[in-house]
Each structure stands twice: as structure tokens, then as C-alpha cells.
Design goal:
With 126 residues, the protein is mainly α. Among the domains are: 44 residues; 40 residues, no CATH class. It contains four helices and no strands. α2 packs across α3.
């Protein structure tokens, strides 16, 4: 059993070391991101970007993938243009639907009458 305990202890130490290195890497990435954001002519809030990444990681990955595709020259190929046409139409439709939905939610409307009301007046107590 002493051998099993040694193995468990080594695994635990290895996991702790890996965790410490991951935290160090995360801190370094944050410092670098803040430096880049500070130098950028476009003012970026790194904290807001981190919150967005926490709340919507798949969306962030999709945006990063599209940016990499475009920056890597993917639009120069027939496949790239086909994908742009397919997903561009879908994105345009979804954006229009989101815009209409947002507009509908924000547009003030008259209050609906509650049950027991007639012509917008409260029902009389009996």
C-alpha cells in the first residue's frame, strides 16, 4: 500500500504544480492583453471582454474563428466565398430578427386592461 500512497502523492503534487503554472500563464496573458489594449487606438475594456468570454464562450470562439479565417486569407478561395455567402445570409437574417425583437421590446405600448376592467377603468367593488 505504500506504493499506492506514493503514487497518489506524486499525482497530487503534479496537479498542484500544473495548476500553479496555469495560473501564472493566465496572469501573464491578462497582463499582455491589458498592455495591447492600452496601446490600441480603439479603447478596449479587457474586463468586459473577460466577462463576455465567461458568459458566451462559444460566441467568442466563433468570432475568433471567423477573424482568423478572414485574416488568414480564407476569403480568397472559392470555399471561403461560399461559406461567407451561406453564413453571411444566415447572420444577416438573425441580425434582422434580433433588431426587430429588440425594437419590439423597447417600444412603449399602452397598458393592457386587467380582467374585470371595462374601457380601461377599474371594476367597481361590489
Amino acid at each position: 500500500m505504500a506504493g499506492a500512497n506514493e503514487i497518489k502523492e506524486k499525482i497530487k503534487q503534479g496537479a498542484e504544480e500544473a495548476s500553479d503554472r496555469a495560473k501564472e500563464a493566465n496572469d501573464e496573458i491578462r497582463r499582455t492583453a491589458r498592455k495591447v489594449a492600452d496601446r490600441s487606438p480603439i479603447k478596449l475594456d479587457v474586463g468586459e471582454l473577460e466577462r463576455f468570454a465567461d458568459e458566451r464562450p462559444l460566441t467568442l470562439m466563433a468570432v475568433a474563428g471567423v477573424a482568423g479565417f478572414v485574416m488568414g486569407g480564407g476569403l480568397r478561395t472559392k470555399l471561403g466565398l461560399t461559406l461567407l455567402a451561406i453564413f453571411g445570409r444566415r447572420a444577416a437574417r438573425q441580425s434582422a430578427a434580433n433588431l426587430a425583437s429588440d425594437w419590439w421590446r423597447r417600444t412603449p405600448r399602452p397598458r393592457m386592461m386587467q380582467s374585470g376592467q371595462r374601457f380601461g377603468f377599474a371594476a367597481r367593488a361590489r
